[in-house]
Structure formats: C-alpha cells, structure tokens
Amino acid sequence: MKDYVLLNLRALKGRAYPRVVGGTRELSWIFFDTILPLLTVAAYVFVYQYLGSLAQGPQKEYIGQFVGYVILGGAMTAYWMNVLWSMAAQFYWEKEIGNLQLYMIAPMSRMAVLGGMAVGGMFYTTVRAVSTIVIGVLIFGVTFSLGPPIYLVLVFLLTLIALYGMGMLFASLYMIYGREAWHMSSLLTEPIYLVSGFYFPVRYLGSIVALSASIIPITLGLDALRQLMFTETADIHGFLPVEVELVALAVLSVLFLFLARHSLRFMENLGRKTGRLTMRWQ
Questions:
Q1: Which of 45, 64, 70, 125 is the most exposed, having the fewest neighbouring CB atoms within 10 Å of its CB?
Q2: In terms of Cα–Cα distance, which of 249, 255, 14 is closest to 115?
Q3: From residue 155, how far is each of 32, 159, 162, 248 by CA, in Å?
C-alpha cells in the first residue's frame, strides 16, 4: 500500500513538473496571457466608468465597485480556460501525440496523472491571474475592503478543487469522444462567462438562473470572493451568504472528484472494449 501511494505521488509530481517549469520557460507567453485578457476587461471597465459618471449619490459608489468585480472576474477567466483546454481536453491531445497508451499501461492511477495536471495548471494559471489583478488594480485604481483572510483562503482553495474536479470529470468524456467532445469546450466558453457572472454579480440574472449556474463551481467561488474582497457592498451585490457558498463549494469538490474517479474508470473500460482508446482522430 505504501509503495502504491508513493508511486502515485511520484506520478503526480512528474505530471505537474512540465507545467510548472514550462509555464515560465517562454516569457513571451506570460506577457500575452497577462496583457491580452486585460483588453477584454478594459472594455467592461470603461462601460462601468461611463455609467458611474452618470449616476448620482450611493449608486455612483455601487457602480464604481463593478470595476473591481470586472478585474477579479477577468483574472478568474484564466482558471476556466485552463480547466476547459488544459484539463478536460488534455487526454484528447495526449491520444493524438501517442502518450495516452503509455498512461494506460503504467501501473499508477489515472487520477494521479490528472491530479498532476491540475496542480501544475493551478500554479501556471495563478501566476497569470495574480499578474492580471495587480496590473488591473494599478491601471484602474481599484481599492479592496477585505474580509476575514481565512475565509478568502478557504473559498479560493475550495473553488479550485471543485473546478479542477469538474475538469477531471470532463477529461474522461474527452478521452473517448475526442473531437466531438472537444467542441463542447467552445460551447462552454462565452455562455459560461455570462451565466456565471464573470463581469457582473450573478444575482442580477435572477435566482433561478443563478442557482442553475451554481453547479459550475466558479459561479459560487467568484461571488464569495467578491463579497470577501469588497465587503462594503457584499450585502447589496452578493447572491448567497459566504458561509452557505463555502459549504456548497465543499460539497461540489467531493462530488466532482467522486464522479471523476468513477467516470474515468467506466470510460477507460468502455474504451478498451470498443478499441477506441488509442485511435487517433477518433
């Protein structure tokens, strides 16, 4: 048992290593991954700044907070894109370059491989997300009123665990359905930006839409982070109490990791039976 645990830990470290090292190898990528998302964010910031200039009294301050919301939402888009294209779609790329069969015959758990991809992706993406926030704050002069630090850390960690757990679940689908499932990544990009409230508080979509979108962990995580980083307007723009969102994120973390483990095993067995596991262009 001890040897098996050590084997999986080494597999996790080995799969995380290329993403940690490779993420800083090409410095021009850091520039483009940091600056280009700011262009989209800037468009929303200018719209909110214009609306703020027309508002009067407390509404002017409330709209001003939206600039900070947009900066934070723009930074979190990096995690969603990383989950879609570097977690969910990764097994498809591995199949195309011939690495997937090596994973299948290796004695470690496939979850260790996915865990390594998740850890490496979190590091890689966090560097870019933090850079986006710092540059956005410096350019647009956003000020924070922070809540309890322990809540901030818990919300952030649980959001990432649940989000990358969802990515592991998607990875099993991509492993079998290849290009067909790959199109799902395109489908889940812009619509998720809208329903998860990346650029505005999700509560303004209405309770039904907001609750439905809460199955995507970044919806609740982003709402909780905004409440904890802009406490002055948390009661006005927040969707659910932070404590409730913390519990929901913990439940989603366990649920997605459980589903990912069983789905991966089911899809692997199905792929072996149908002979589609290592066929390129399938």
A1: 64
A2: 14
A3: 28, 6, 10, 10
The band of 177, judged by pLDDT with boundaries at 50, 70 and 90, is low
* Residue 275 DSSP SS3: coil
Tell me the two tokens of residue 133: 């926030």
SS3 89: coil
Spell 158-173 as b/e; 16+ CB within 10 A means b: bbbbbbbbbbbbbbbb
Whether 276 has a pLDDT exceeding 70, the answer reads: no
For the entire predicted model, the pTM comes to: 0.86
- What's the confidence (pLDDT) of residue 7? 86
Q: What sign does the CA torsion over 164, 169, 171, 177 have?
A: negative
Tokens 């011939």 -> residue: 98
